[in-house]
Amino acid sequence: MASRAKDWLAQAEHDLRHAQNAMRDGDYDWACFAAHQGAEKAVKALLLARGAEGWGHSVLKLLRELESAMPIPAQLFEAGRRLDRHYIPTRYPNGFDWGSPKDYLWSRGCSKGRGGWPSYLRLLRARDL
Predict the structure, then answer these.
(1) Max Cα–Cα distance, the chain, nearest Å
(2) Which residues contact 111 (CB under 8 A, 6 or more apart)?
(3) Which residues of the chain have pLDDT under 50?
(4) What's the whole-model pTM score?
């Protein structure tokens, strides 16, 4: 079966555009979640390109799996930790004692979470998928 790594990369790039658009529109909950999704898919693209298949949604866990196949810059591990914190609370009101995710997320916090995203894409583009 042919590798679907390029498909995963295309979707990762699409998710980044969505994250950027959501940031611009002030929809920080969606921006954070889309950034997480894009990073997750970017790492899964790299895993697929190396014959592995990443399971789960933790960017940090997926990076640790990928580390056995290639060197991973330290800043990507830190970005993965930040992005993973946005996976559930950005979508579900019961992630907080009261209110909804839109009440808790703001541009600065979301920007920090998204900070490593361009690095994921640079890492991917530097590899031959």
Answers:
(1) 48
(2) 23
(3) none
(4) 0.86
Among candidates 83, 102, 91, 87, which has minimal Cα distance to 25? 102
Cα–Cα nearest to 55, from 70, 44, 63: 44
Looking at residue 111, its pLDDT comes to 57
* H helical segments located in 1-129: 5-25, 28-49, 59-67, 74-84, 101-104, 107-114, 117-125
Report pLDDT for 5.
93
- Structural contact between residues 80 and 107, judged by C-beta atoms closer than 8 angstroms: no
For residues 123 and 13, what is the distance between their CA atoms, to the nearest angstrom?
Answer: 13
Query: Do 35 and 23 touch, CB atoms closer than 8 A?
Result: no
Query: What pLDDT does 49 receive?
Result: 92
Return the amino acid letter for 129.
L
Angle at 106 between CA 100 and CA 108, to 5 degrees: 155
